[in-house]
Specification:
The longest helix is centred in the last third of the chain and has 14 residues, at 175-188. The strands form four sheets. This protein has a two-stranded antiparallel sheet with strand order 1-8. It has a two-stranded antiparallel ribbon with strand order 2-3. A two-stranded antiparallel sheet has the order 4-5. The chain is α+β, with helices and mostly antiparallel strands. It has helices at 2-7, 13-16, 33-38, 70-78, 119-124, 132-139, 153-159, 175-188, 195-206, and strands spanning 30-32, 84-85, 91-92, 96-97, 104-105, 111-115, 148-152, 213-215. It has nine helices and eight strands.
Length: 221
């Protein structure tokens, strides 16, 4: 399954992905995917006790005074053409490019804001041991651009909460970026990866995505 997933993708992503361009002098906070992957902890997942309500979202966002919750703030930040924000931050107009499938969207109501590393995946990879406050931080994290992403409902259904062992965006210009940001998000939050996930990530890191760069960051405490 993993090898078939990678075989169906094309190295064109190295050309099109903004995170795939090699850099001659990477800073301490920017590493190549193979090096970032080496920092991931491999561990079996523990699904016991998961429920979506364990992660409070959406909260009041970065600016409690602006009337916008986290979802609306993400849509405002990711808009290609800015929407209008009315009473209670109701958004109208604007234009977005869906992260997973590249579709242009002009109705904010049809967009979904997805956790790139899904809440269930986070729970199974270490978040089950966090406090409720820490899980709320994760569910509303806007400190790294890739933690929360605007996508079409169809592409979110297609992803279905799966990790890169079973799903990555099919668009040639997006899957290396996605894999790099998946690893970056897990490192940011100190989350582990299971055996199948690590094997899939290694296939990407040793193949079409070896020059993808990962932005290394640490979530605030």
């Amino acid at each position: 399954m993993i090898k078939n997933l990678v075989r169906g993708l094309t190295p064109l992503a190295l050309i099109l992905s903004p995170l795939a361009a090699p850099s001659p002098a990477l800073s301490a906070n920017v590493v190549l995917l193979p090096d970032a992957l080496a920092e991931l902890t491999e561990a079996a997942e523990d699904p016991d006790g998961y429920k979506e309500t364990a992660f409070r979202h959406w909260n009041e966002g970065l600016d409690p005074a602006d009337g916008c919750d986290t979802r609306s703030e993400v849509l405002l930040a990711e808009a290609v053409d800015a929407p209008r924000a009315g009473a209670d931050c109701a958004l109208t107009g604007g234009r977005w490019t869906s992260y997973y499938d590249g579709q242009n969207v002009t109705d904010p109501a049809t967009l979904r804001v997805d956790h790139l590393v899904p809440l269930r995946e986070a729970w199974e990879s270490g978040a089950s041991g966090w406090t409720a406050a820490r899980r709320e931080q994760y569910a509303n994290d806007q400190g790294a651009a890739a933690t929360l992403v605007a996508v079409t409902a169809r592409s979110l259904r297609d992803k279905a909460g799966r990790d890169p062992a079973e799903w990555v965006p099919s668009d040639a210009g997006r899957y290396c970026r996605y894999v790099g940001e998946w690893v970056g998000t897990k490192l940011r939050w100190g989350l582990s990866a299971d055996k199948d996930e690590v094997e899939a990530l290694k296939l990407f890191a040793d193949g079409p995505c070896e020059e993808t760069v990962v932005l290394r960051s640490t979530a605030p405490r």
